[in-house]
Structures are given as C-alpha cells and as structure tokens.
C-alpha cells in the first residue's frame, strides 16, 4: 500500500493591502508561500480592490494563476479577460458631478489607468503623505524601494474634463463632507465602503457599483474552472473583503482587520509583518 498523501487542491484568493503586502511591501515569506503552494498543485489568485493599473509588477512577481481587480469588477486568467464591468455613463457622470460640487479629491479607477483632475496629485500628496510616512519596513521584503504613494500617482492621467472616462470604481481620499452624506445624490446603483486607509476617517471611502464585490469575481473563476466552493480559501482584512470571506469555504481574516471581516471569518492570521499569509498556508497544509 502506498503511503503517499493525496493532495486536496485548493484555490486561494488573496487581498493585497494589509494581507499579502503592507503599503506595497510583500514579505519574502509570502512570496515563497505562493510559489510553494502553486508547486504543490494549488491555485493562488490576487483578489484586490485595486484596479489592474495600480497593481505593480513587484506584487505580481510571485506568480499567480489569475488576477481579480476592482473589487470583483475585472477578472483575468491566462491573459484572457473573463469580466470587465464599469459604471453606466449617466451614473458615472452623476457621481463625478457630485464629488466636484463638494470639492472632493478623488481618483477614477480603470484597468488601463487612474484618472484625476489636473492638480489633484498635489492634494493627494498632502493628504496621503503623512499616512504613508510611517509605513513599515519588513525584513526580507521583495522590494525595499517601494513608494506606496507612487503606486497611486504613477498610473495617473490628469485632465480638466473627465466626462469621457470609463471606470469601475472611485477612491475618494479627501471630502469636506462625509461621503455617507452624499450617497442620496449618487442613486441606488452605487455603494460605499470605508477606505482601507482607516486614518482618513469618513472623509474617504471607495465608491463602487452596487452588487459588485470580490465574491462576484471569485464566482467567475469558480465557474470557469469548475471549482468546489468548499475548496475556496479567501484571506483579507478590509471592508471590501467581507463578501469573499463569507463566500469562501474557508475565510481567514487578518488580525486587527475590519470588524465585519473578523465577524465572518473561520480563522484569524497575523498581518504581513507577522508573515500571516505564510502561516495560514502552512496551517492549511498547502506548503507540504
């Protein structure tokens, strides 16, 4: 009788910010965990709120089986785009007009690029500079020269006229009015979650297409590959990770994450500074 253990293939979906990486820095232990799990026959996917244009090469360098971006708005596998949804033009125009009327600083997120009004980069540097100034420096990170602010500003395109821009999500970083107070202007097609940069408070947030979330993106992959839901693992820390942890057969929250994520999780793992993704992979038997 053979003593060889039968491997149960899993499909793992990883949030980036605060989970796989911390302010753009991916611990080497996380990179190696992804590579080892894939060598062992498991599938590993990025599943992020970032648009594709804001996912840098150093994050993808570990090698992944697919990428879900825009919090479920876009799904790509093996160079094939399986899903690419955007705001309807009239809804998009209404949101932009409302944010402009209230002097908000925001970015329109599309797979091809980030879009902002001329001069918004100066305001973003003022608002985000202090947030990123104290970013951690982990031992053994994949890249030690990563500037998280340039992750945002690098793909930016600026214009005084944004009416023709097609986009899937908006990140608002500085609104003089709490964003919750603007929701009635946007309409029922629009949802709002807190920014993953919690230090910005209620003047910041992510504006998205109602009904679009990370679990929707996972379902596209699930249907394409014929996955079993019980073999799906999701790891995340922010408000936009709640649905994917609820949907996954095994949902893993990052310690100190959003209360809603912790409430639906099956397990908890440390953040990037504690190599939490690698620890979770080991506990699930993905590395042996």
From TrEMBL:
<dbReference type="InterPro" id="IPR036412">
    <property type="entry name" value="HAD-like_sf"/>
</dbReference>
<dbReference type="GO" id="GO:0016791">
    <property type="term" value="F:phosphatase activity"/>
</dbReference>
<dbReference type="GO" id="GO:0000287">
    <property type="term" value="F:magnesium ion binding"/>
</dbReference>
<protein>
    <submittedName>
        <fullName>HAD family phosphatase</fullName>
    </submittedName>
</protein>
<dbReference type="Pfam" id="PF08282">
    <property type="entry name" value="Hydrolase_3"/>
</dbReference>
<dbReference type="GO" id="GO:0005829">
    <property type="term" value="C:cytosol"/>
</dbReference>
<dbReference type="InterPro" id="IPR023214">
    <property type="entry name" value="HAD_sf"/>
</dbReference>
């Amino acid at each position: 009788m053979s003593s060889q253990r039968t491997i149960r293939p899993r499909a793992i979906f990883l949030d980036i910010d605060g989970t796989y990486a911390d302010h753009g820095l991916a611990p080497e232990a996380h990179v190696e965990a992804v590579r080892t799990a894939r060598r062992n026959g498991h599938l590993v996917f990025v599943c992020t709120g970032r648009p594709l244009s804001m996912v840098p090469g150093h994050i993808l360098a570990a090698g992944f089986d697919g990428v879900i971006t825009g919090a479920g708005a876009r799904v790509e596998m093996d160079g094939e785009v399986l899903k690419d949804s955007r705001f309807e033009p009239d809804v998009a125009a209404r949101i932009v007009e409302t944010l402009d009327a209230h002097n908000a600083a925001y970015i329109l997120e599309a797979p091809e690029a980030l879009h902002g009004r001329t001069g918004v980069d100066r305001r973003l540097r003022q608002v985000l500079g202090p947030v990123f100034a104290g970013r951690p420096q982990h031992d053994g990170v994949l890249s030690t020269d990563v500037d998280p602010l340039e992750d945002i500003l690098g793909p930016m395109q600026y214009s005084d006229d944004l009416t023709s821009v097609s986009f899937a999500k908006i990140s608002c970083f500085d609104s003089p009015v709490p964003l919750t107070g603007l929701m009635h202007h946007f309409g029922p097609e629009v949802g709002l979650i807190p920014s993953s940069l919690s230090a910005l408070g209620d003047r910041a947030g992510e504006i998205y297409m109602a009904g679009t979330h990370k679990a929707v993106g996972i379902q596209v992959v699930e249907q394409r590959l014929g996955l079993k839901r019980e073999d799906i693992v999701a790891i995340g820390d922010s408000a936009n990770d709640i649905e994917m942890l609820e949907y996954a057969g095994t949902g893993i929250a990052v310690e100190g994450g959003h209360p809603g994520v912790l409430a639906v999780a099956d397990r908890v793992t440390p953040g990037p500074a504690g190599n939490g993704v690698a620890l979770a992979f080991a506990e699930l038997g993905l590395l042996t």
